[in-house]
Automatic annotation (TrEMBL):
Binding site for substrate: E103, H196, E226, D311
Cofactor, how bound (note): Binds 1 zinc ion per subunit.
SUPFAM superfamilies: Composite domain of metallo-dependent hydrolases, Metallo-dependent hydrolases
Positions that bind Zn(2+): H74, H76, H223, D311
Provenance organism: Marinobacter nauticus
Function: Catalyzes the deamination of 5-methylthioadenosine and S-adenosyl-L-homocysteine into 5-methylthioinosine and S-inosyl-L-homocysteine, respectively. Is also able to deaminate adenosine.
Gene giving rise to this polypeptide: mtaD
Enzyme class, broadest EC rank: hydrolase
Protein name: 5-methylthioadenosine/S-adenosylhomocysteine deaminase
InterPro entries on file: Amidohydro-rel, Deaminase_MtaD/DadD, Metal-dep_hydrolase_composite, Metal_Hydrolase, MTA/SAH_deaminase
Length: 442
C-alpha cells in the first residue's frame, strides 16, 4: 500500500460492535466508521481502515456498540417543564383540567426555549439525534434545535380554539406558512403541519392544512385514534370514524404521520394501507393515560411503516427512546400473543430507518451506510448492568434504558462525549428549570 492510496478524512470511530440497521439484523465486530464533513465516508473493518484512511482524530470505543442516532417521531418538547405535574389521569381529564389550564398560564416564548433545551439535553443524553415536536411557539423550538445542532421536525400547531400562540386556525396557518417558508430546505429543521386531533380541528382548517401540505411538500402530523372515547364520540356525533373523516378530507397520505392509533378496525386498517400514511407508536404515553394499545405487529405485517415516539414528558414521563423501545417490544408481544413479535432488531428499526422513512429522508438518515449523514451514537456495554454480552442488539432494547449512551454525532459534529453534552450549558439550564418550577408552584 503506497501513500497515494491512503485517503485523508476528518474522524475515525473504532467500535467493538456496530449495528448498521441496513442490512437488517446484522451485528458487525471491530469496525471503523470514517466521517468526512457531515457525512459517513465509509464503514469497514478496522484492519482495512488502517490501510485505507488517515484521519485527523480517532475515537476508540473498545466496549461500545455504534448505531444510527435514534429518531423520536412524536413529542411536545417544551412540556418537559410540566413533567410530573399531573399524573395518573385519563387523557381528556389530564388535558381539560390540568394541562390546558397550565399551558394558558405559563407557556410563552421563554418557557418554550427553556423547556426545549431541557428536553434536548435529555434526548441527547439518551441517544436521540432527531426529534419531532408539536407545540406552541414552534419558531422558538426550531431556532433552539438549530442552535443546539439537533435535527428536528417542527410541526406548528393547528386547532380551532385560541391559545397562547394565536387566536384560531387562520392565524395558526398564517404563522405556520411563514415557519415553513423560513426553514424549508434546511438540513437540520424540517417544518411541518400539526393539526392537533380530529376532535379539536374542524373540516375547513383541515382542508386548508392539506392545501398547504400539497403546496409546500411539508408533512402533516396529527394525534389520531388515541382513545376509544375519541372514536366513540365521533361516531355518536357524525356516524363517521375519525380515520374515515381524515381520509375523506385528504389528510391521510404518504406524507402524513398518524400518532397513537390504538383503535383500529378492518376499515381503518384498509384506509391506512391505501393511503401510505405512517404510524407513530407512543406506548408509554398510551399506557400511562390508559389510552389503549397500538397493534404494531399487525400494522407492520400489512406493510405500514411504524415509527416510535415518546410523546411529551408530561405524559410519559421521560424522553428516553431506548426505554420506549423496550416497552414497545414488550407490549407488541402481548398484543400479538406472540413472543417473536417486534424483535430487538425490528424495534431498533422503528427508531432509526422507519423514522427516517416517515420524514421522507431514508436516503440520508436512519442507517450507517457510506454517503448518509453522520448521525450516530455509541452505547458503552462495559457496565455491570449490560454484562455479559451475547447479543448487543438484545442489550440495547431489553437491558439498556439509555443510561449507557456515551457518545453522539449529528451532521458529523460531536454532541455527546463520554456522557458530557458539548453544546448545551447544563448548569445554566438547571438554574432556569428551577426558576420555572418556582413559578409554576406559586
Ligand atoms: C397543539 S400543541 C399540542 C397540544 O397537544 C397537547 N397534548 C400533549 N399530549 C397529548 C396527547 O397525548 N394527546 C392529545 N394532546 C396532547 C399539548 O398539551 C398541547 O396542548
Ligand atoms: Zn402527543
Amino acid at each position: 500500500m503506497t501513500a497515494d492510496t491512503i485517503t485523508a478524512a476528518d474522524s475515525r470511530i473504532n467500535a467493538r460492535w456496530l449495528i448498521p440497521v441496513e442490512p437488517f439484523g446484522v451485528v458487525l465486530e471491530h469496525q471503523a466508521v470514517i466521517l468526512q464533513g457531515s457525512r459517513i465516508a465509509d464503514v469497514l473493518p478496522q484492519s482495512e481502515a488502517d490501510q485505507k484512511y488517515r484521519t485527523r482524530e480517532t475515537v476508540n470505543l473498545g466496549q461500545h456498540v455504534v448505531l444510527p442516532g435514534l429518531i423520536n417521531l412524536h413529542g411536545h418538547t417544551a412540556m418537559s417543564l410540566f413533567r410530573g405535574l399531573a399524573d395518573d389521569l385519563p387523557l381528556m381529564t389530564w388535558l381539560n383540567d390540568h394541562i390546558w389550564p397550565a399551558e394558558g398560564k405559563f407557556v410563552s416564548e421563554p418557557f418554550v426555549l427553556d423547556g426545549t433545551r431541557l428536553a434536548m439535553a435529555e434526548m441527547l443524553r439518551t441517544g436521540t439525534t432527531t426529534f419531532s415536536d408539536m407545540y406552541f411557539f414552534p419558531e422558538v423550538t426550531a431556532q433552539a434545535a438549530h442552535d443546539a445542532g439537533m435535527r428536528a421536525q417542527v410541526c406548528f400547531p393547528l386547532m380551532d380554539m385560541p391559545t397562547v400562540w394565536g387566536s384560531g386556525p387562520d392565524e395558526y396557518l398564517r404563522k405556520g406558512a411563514a415557519l415553513i417558508e423560513q426553514w424549508q430546505g434546511d438540513e437540520y429543521i424540517m417544518p411541518a403541519i400539526g393539526p392537533h386531533a380530529p376532535y379539536t380541528v374542524s373540516d375547513q382548517p383541515l382542508k386548508n392544512a392539506v392545501a398547504l401540505a400539497e403546496r409546500t411538500g411539508a408533512a402533516i402530523q396529527l394525534h389520531l385514534h388515541e382513545t376509544a372515547f375519541e372514536v366513540d364520540e365521533a361516531l355518536k356525533a357524525t356516524a363517521t370514524r375519525p380515520v374515515t373523516r381524515m381520509a375523506e378530507l385528504g389528510v391521510l397520505g404518504r406524507n402524513t404521520q398518524c400518532v397513537h392509533m390504538t383503535q383500529i378496525d378492518d376499515s381503518d386498517l384498509e384506509q391506512l394501507v391505501r393511503s401510505g400514511a405512517h404510524i407513530v407508536h407512543c406506548p408509554e404515553s398510551n399506557l400511562k393515560l390508559a389510552s389503549g394499545l397500538c397493534p404494531v405487529q399487525k400494522l407492520m405485517d400489512h406493510g405500514i411503516n411504524v415509527t416510535i415516539g415518546t410523546d411529551g414528558a408530561a405524559s410519559n414521563n421521560d424522553l428516553d427512546l431506548f426505554g420506549e423501545l423496550k416497552t414497545a417490544a414488550m407490549v407488541a408481544k402481548v398484543v400479538a400473543g406472540d413472543a417473536s413479535a417486534l424483535s430487538a432488531h425490528r424495534a431498533l428499526e422503528l427508531a432509526t430507518l422507519n423514522g427516517a422513512r416517515a420524514l421522507g429522508r431514508e436516503q440520508e438518515l436512519g442507517s450507517l451506510v457510506a454517503g448518509k449523514l453522520a448521525d450516530l451514537i455509541a452505547v458503552d456495554l462495559s457496565d455491570p448492568f449490560l454484562q455479559p454480552v451475547y447479543d448487543p442488539a438484545s442489550h440495547l432494547v431489553y437491558s439498556n434504558h439509555g443510561r449507557a449512551v456515551s457518545h453522539s454525532w449529528i451532521h458529523g459534529v460531536p454532541q455527546l462525549q463520554d456522557g458530557r453534552l458539548t453544546r448545551i450549558d447544563v448548569p445554566d439550564l438547571m438554574l432556569r428549570v428551577s426558576e420555572w418550577r418556582q413559578q409554576i408552584l406559586s
